[in-house]
Design a protein that fits this description.
Layout (H helix, E strand, L loop, with lengths): L2 E11 L12 E9 L2 E15 L8 E5 L1
Antiparallel strand pairs: 1-3, 2-3, 3-4
Length: about 60
């Protein structure tokens, strides 16, 4: 089973700092948190991939950025 989920990413940025956002980022918010700092928060899509090993009876799940 494959699906798309979202992971919350959050970073602190100072004046003049450059931040590269993924093209698929959504729901961007910018919030001041202190003198000269802002918190950038956004949703980043992650894709669920089923990984199975022949010797295991249960399915293992992994998320790939």
């Amino acid at each position: 089973m494959h699906g798309t989920n979202f992971k919350v990413e959050s970073e602190l940025c100072a004046p003049g700092q450059v931040m590269n956002l993924p093209d698929a980022a959504s729901t961007l918010s910018v919030e001041p948190v202190g003198p000269g700092l802002v918190r950038i928060t956004y949703l980043k899509p992650v894709h669920e991939i089923s990984i199975e090993r022949p010797d295991e009876t249960e399915r293992a799940m992994a998320y790939v950025d």
